[in-house]
């Protein structure tokens, strides 16, 4: 499965990370999800 920065799930995980609720390691390592979330939070 391929995710983009526009994927709702990636945006949701990014919001949780920015809110301090989870850390990047909590994001499932499925497809490129973790990498996309990293891109969102560092943009």
TrEMBL record:
Official protein name in the record? Uncharacterized protein
